Amino acid sequence: MKKIILLLAVCLLFAFSGYTYTIPAEKVPAPVKESFAKKFPSATSVVYKMEKTDYKVTFNDKTVGMSANFNSKGEWLETQTIMIESDLPKVVLTSVATNFVGYVMTDITKIDGPDNVLNYEMHLKKGTVAEKVKFSQKGEILKKTHLKK
Prior knowledge:
CATH topology of the largest domain: Nuclear Transport Factor 2, Chain: A
CATH architecture of the largest domain: Roll
Distance between the termini: 27 Å
Low-confidence stretches: none
Largest sheet: 9 strands, antiparallel
Number of helices: 3
């Protein structure tokens, strides 16, 4: 069951990329490939994409679906890791339960950034209402976007 959820989450991660297109590895600047290889040496199923002006690399690390963004100089911008609800910190779960009573979580992602920035983003659905919400590691709501169906 976990593998099915993980596979679905990876597919959704690709689907919500927006303004992204796949590019062949030989068209990716060497600094991007080098930085990626150094940061994620055990990555498999690597796919390079162009996302606006940055490079998005989607891959698996062990059995976990991930993506990492780099600028053209090879500087790491962020990493998104697909998660399941049970892996979220208690403070985030408590914030969801308090602020979104009756909502169901889907598409849960951990976002790591430079300077030890760590956030969690997810879709929350209740009936016909759907929100994309970003939480801090302390459970604070950082951003909420209403999703249209």
